[in-house]
Structure to design on (427 residues):
């Protein structure tokens, strides 16, 4: 983890790597584990396979029917028993007209395409969430390190004040204030450790439930990311999988209307059979054709429903585009604001707080400042460092959302999908 450059010895104490000796996880490995082990994404991949099966099923023609008939048996006189029976063995096949199978296959194919895009969007969302969870662990690690150093400094200050009070060089109230600061530092340390455990558990959930007891992450939180151009983001969302899924949904709605219209066309059934006449031991061929008469049902309701669904899908697609654009704009604005805030903490506020503490520390040693001045400068320094970590969390959350909209991790998803495909081919 990169160390920030501060001039005082206190700053060096405050910035130390945490969880030494623990298993270290880098971000790329975390993203790969998420794709490999996350159960929600596995379910999304299974949904793609199911849609592929539905497309195959939609492309199949109807099965033929086998027909077996016996006529003129168990009667009277010459038809007694099976003496005058006629046996017919044949086959019947319904022929789909009007492009039913083609349209049905198109509808199912668009469902497959929609499912693919939805799975990709889910994968991008998973990776963005994993990215943020990873950085959240990194920030939590730094918070624990900061809390440890705060407690160490509070203990050291407490010992110094205790000696000064014992030597009658300081008032008893300074000892009380030092006790309070020490207790507050202990509370902050426990809170930081709990936050780290929570962040580790969240990351473990995304990675498929790995053991987090000794997990740490390797991340550089001192180097702030760059802010991308807003127009670049708005252009990128046009190719986002969510938008592609909406386009496929519109095409599917049109194909569903074509399918509804084709279902109004009657499907004839052709039959061919061989008939055996027991009466004279002869055989003959029997052929037939039947088809429903479209008198009452011409699929009027289905066509009306398909038209309404097409209008509905167009409206939903437009609404989704507006919502995605608004989300992108809001995300970019949050990113810009949080990044500016983090930069100000890092470049202006923390150096000023550090300088104020150094001056108070030096002045207290010379007797120029009171203990309360030193304690106040110390508290302010830690508060602005804590605030900086909070601003970093906002930066990384906004960045993860931006990466999701930009499709930053698409190459990793494609690489993972290709590896899975090759693995299935080799099995």
């Amino acid at each position: 983890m990169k160390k920030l450059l501060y001039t005082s010895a206190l700053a060096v104490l405050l910035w130390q790597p945490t969880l030494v000796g623990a298993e270290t996880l880098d971000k790329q490995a975390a993203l790969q584990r998420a794709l490999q082990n996350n159960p929600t994404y596995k379910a999304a991949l299974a949904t793609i396979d199911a849609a592929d099966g539905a497309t195959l099923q939609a492309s199949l023609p109807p099965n033929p029917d086998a027909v077996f008939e016996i006529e003129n048996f168990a009667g009277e006189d010459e038809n007694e028993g099976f003496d005058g029976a006629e046996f017919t063995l044949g086959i019947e096949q319904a022929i789909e007209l009007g492009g039913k199978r083609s349209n049905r296959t198109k509808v199912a194919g668009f469902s497959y395409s929609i499912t693919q895009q939805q799975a990709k969007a889910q994968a991008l969302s998973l990776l963005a969430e994993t990215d943020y969870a990873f950085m959240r662990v990194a920030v939590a690690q730094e918070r624990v390190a900061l809390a440890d150093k705060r407690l160490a400094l509070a203990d050291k200050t407490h010992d110094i004040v205790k000696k000064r009070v014992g030597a009658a060089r300081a008032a008893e109230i300074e000892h009380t204030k030092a006790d309070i600061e020490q207790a507050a530092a202990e509370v902050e340390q426990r809170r930081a450790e709990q936050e780290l455990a929570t962040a580790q558990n969240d990351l473990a959930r995304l990675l498929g439930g790995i053991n987090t007891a000794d997990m740490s992450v390797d991340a550089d939180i001192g180097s702030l990311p760059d802010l991308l151009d807003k127009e670049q983001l708005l252009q990128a969302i046009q190719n986002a999988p969510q938008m592609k899924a909406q386009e496929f949904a519109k095409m599917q709605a049109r194909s569903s209307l074509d399918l509804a219209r084709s279902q109004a066309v009657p499907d004839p059934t052709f039959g061919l059979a061989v008939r055996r006449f027991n009466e004279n031991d002869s055989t003959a061929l029997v052929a037939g054709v039947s088809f429903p008469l479209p008198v009452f049902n011409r699929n009027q309701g289905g066509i009306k429903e398909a038209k309404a669904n097409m209008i509905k899908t167009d409206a939903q697609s437009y609404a989704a585009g507006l919502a995605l654009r608004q989300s992108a704009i809001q995300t970019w604005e949050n990113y810009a604001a949080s990044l500016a805030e983090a930069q100000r903490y890092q470049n202006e506020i923390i150096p000023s707080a550090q300088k104020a503490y150094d001056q108070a520390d030096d002045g207290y040693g010379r007797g120029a400042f009171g203990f309360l001045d030193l304690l106040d400068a110390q508290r302010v320094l830690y508060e602005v460092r804590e605030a900086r970590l909070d601003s970093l969390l906002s930066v990384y959350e906004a960045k993860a959302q931006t990466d999701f909209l930009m499709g930053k991790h698409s190459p990793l998803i494609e690489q993972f999908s290709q590896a899975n495909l090759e693995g299935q081919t080799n099995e």
